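thought: user wants a sequence for this fold. calling inverse folding tool.
action: design(structure=
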């Protein structure tokens, strides 16, 4: 694929590299920090992008909230390969994982609205996802000053349209 990055499911041995990649953007408050332990516990939910030197340069995860609803989470692409289609490919791989699990309603809470709009997500009211609000937002220190924007995609409609 573009930028010679191969997308695959993550393995336990990838957990430290994933946490390090996420940490570079968490330090800029662009995303939430995740420890290697947190990543390893949820490793089956992660996909990664690997460059020709075997380094992890991208990641993403599916965070399930119910049998039908999941968040496209932990999307990060190393700066050296920004703008090469890797972010789009990572989200697509997470969507494929969602479809395999029978989850059709996916959403993202993001500070990168233009990215999600460019890859076919629609802006929606986060109130549409009370599961997310109950599990994460109510306990978050920034709940009264949150500037994340909610984007969603219905994968069932999309796969029907493609057929
Ligand atoms: C947001 C991010 C994942 C995008 O990754 P990327 O590999 O550069 O994105 P892609 O090259 O796949 O871009 C896909 C499309 O989104 C657009 N896009 C990507 N980032 C954009 C941005 N910041 N602003 C506007 N458009 C953007 C691209 O132009 C492209 O559009 P096109 O298909 O019409 O040409 C990456 O910048 C990143 O890791 N940012 C830091 C972490 C972060 O904020 N993650 C999101 C947490 S939800």
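)
observation: tool returned 163 residues.
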């Amino acid at each position: 694929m573009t930028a010679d990055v191969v997308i695959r499911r993550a393995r336990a041995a990838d957990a430290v590299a994933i946490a390090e990649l996420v940490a570079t953007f968490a330090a800029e408050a662009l995303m939430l920090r995740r420890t290697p332990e947190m990543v390893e516990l949820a490793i089956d939910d992660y996909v990664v992008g690997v460059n020709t030197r075997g380094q992890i340069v991208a990641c993403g995860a599916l965070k399930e909230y119910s049998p039908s609803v999941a968040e496209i989470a932990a999307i990060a692409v190393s700066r050296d390969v920004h703008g090469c289609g890797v972010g789009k490919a990572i989200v697509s791989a997470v969507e494929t994982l969602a479809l395999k699990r029978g989850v059709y309603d996916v959403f993202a809470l993001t500070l990168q609205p233009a990215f999600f709009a460019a890859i076919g997500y629609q802006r929606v009211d986060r109130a549409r996802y009370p599961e997310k609000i109950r599990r994460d937002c109510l306990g978050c220190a920034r709940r009264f000053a949150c500037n994340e924007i909610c984007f969603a995609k219905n994968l069932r409609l999309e796969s029907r349209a493609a057929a």
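thought: summarizing for user.
answer: Here is the designed sequence. Helices lie at 15-26, 36-41, 86-100, 113-118, 130-137, 155-162.
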